[in-house]
Design goal:
This protein has 161 residues and is α+β, with helices and mostly antiparallel strands. It is 35% helix and 24% strand.
Length: 161
């Protein structure tokens, strides 16, 4: 909540499930003039994180009626938060949802991207035709390729970018 507030969002923590109302509410409502989210937050020292199917359905239902974008926020071992739209989560055979740590890191939206302060760059989004690439894109491609090969640590790549 504090990070969202610092990023310029109006933030409200919803009452705990079942304590103030019989309706399922998201953990956090956050919005600014451009983005509005209903967030269900889950953290765990273990891996993976599981979510009950009904809980996710309630988030989507509330978000649709309230006019917010539903997001599942996950955090492992007190590390960074990663966010997903419920449709992007793995569904188990029992109708529940699962997020593994490596999936969160690889596919999740980080806090800066969620709040509009950065945009995810992948090798696929840069393009491959040399004549169509600007020098900046070429540099980014080289950095990301070195990161993918393991020649650079993530912190080194961030510094270079």
């Amino acid at each position: 909540m504090n990070k969202l507030d610092e990023a310029g969002f109006a933030v409200m923590r919803a009452p705990a499930s079942g304590s103030a109302t019989e309706r399922e509410l998201p953990d956090v409502l956050a919005g600014n003039s451009e983005r509005f989210y209903a967030i269900e937050a889950k953290s765990s020292a273990g891996d993976p994180i599981y979510l009950d199917g009904e809980e996710v359905y309630a988030l989507v239902y509330f978000s649709r009626n309230f006019g917010a974008k539903p997001r599942i926020g996950v955090r492992f071992d007190r590390e960074d938060w990663y966010f997903f739209h419920p449709d992007d989560l793995y569904t188990t055979d029992g109708g529940n949802y699962r997020v593994k740590k490596e999936t969160a890191i690889a596919d999740g939206v980080d806090f800066a991207e969620l709040t509009g302060h950065s945009q995810k760059v992948t090798l696929d989004s840069i393009g491959t035709e040399p004549e169509q690439q600007s020098e900046r894109k070429k540099d980014l491609r080289r950095i990301l390729e070195a990161l993918e090969r393991g020649d650079l640590a993530v912190d080194e790549a961030v510094e270079m970018i």
